[in-house]
Amino acid sequence: MAEPTERAQGPLVKVKVWDGWIRAVHWALVLLIGFSWWAAETERYEWHMLSGEVILTLLLFRLGWGIAGSDTARFTRFLRSPMEGFRHLRHLTRREPDTEIGHNAAGGWMVLVMLLVLLTQAVSGLFTDDGILTKGPLARSVSGATADTARSIHLINFDLILVLVALHVLVVLAYAGLKRHDLVRPMVTGFKRVPAALAARAPRLGNPWLALALLAVAAGVVTMIARQG
């Protein structure tokens, strides 16, 4: 028996909306944020620093991929006006078919905010010096007062990350419960089922060789920074 969405808009077609690079970065950041917290809590600071360097590598790659990568990865494709984002949130409780190929108007801004907050966390960690156990690779290049400020930002910003992660999870659950939109499966498989009329809007996927080049450049930059320590 056909689902209500299919009866209303015709059969659903499977379309690849997220490339493997976006999905790998997304889930790697989820794991690394948790690992970084655990390493700091258990005073395994070498692991904490290494995890932060990997996170910074992934963030630099994501910024580059957001400029030159797949359609659904590009900031110019999913960042719309803030007002459009607020209008989208006003309809959060409305049951309607999922017709978004990539990030919706509100989700795009959440992605940008999360990237900026994570980048703040990674960069502040480079300059942090607690005077006892940990010293970021760039801490020697700044004054003690600046290193203390970086440490304060690093600690406070992590609380903001926890708030944003909790908000992200709540919104995903709200979409599943209120709108019957599954946002998790496409980020795992890369594919989404959309009305056939939208299948022609399937996004162009980025060049994998370009992705490897961007990842190599990001890793090279972070390695050079790490060696300063």
Protein described:
This protein has 229 residues and is mainly α. The chain has one domain (20-93, 102-226): Fumarate Reductase Cytochrome B subunit (Up-down Bundle), CATH 1.20.950. The protein is built from nine helices and two strands, in the order αβαααααααβα. It has helices at residues 4-9, 20-41, 45-68, 75-78, 82-90, 105-127, 144-179, 184-189, 208-226; strands spanning 12-16, 191-195. A two-stranded antiparallel sheet has the order 1-2. Helix 2 (20-41) packs antiparallel against helix 3 (45-68), helix 3 (45-68) runs antiparallel to helix 9 and helix 5 (82-90) crosses helix 6. The N and C termini lie far apart (63 Å).
Question: What's a quick, concise take on this entry?
Answer:
The protein has 229 residues and is mainly alpha-helical.
Q: Supply Rg.
A: 20 Å
How confident overall, as mean pLDDT? 88
Query: Percentage of helical residues?
Result: 55-70%
Secondary-structure element string: HEHHHHHHHEH
The total of helices stands at 9
The CATH architecture is Up-down Bundle
Summarize the SSE layout with pairings.
Blueprint: H1 4-9, E1 12-16, H2 20-41, H3 45-68, H4 75-78, H5 82-90, H6 105-127, H7 144-179, H8 184-189, E2 191-195, H9 208-226
Helix pairs in contact: 2-3, 3-6, 3-9, 5-6, 6-7
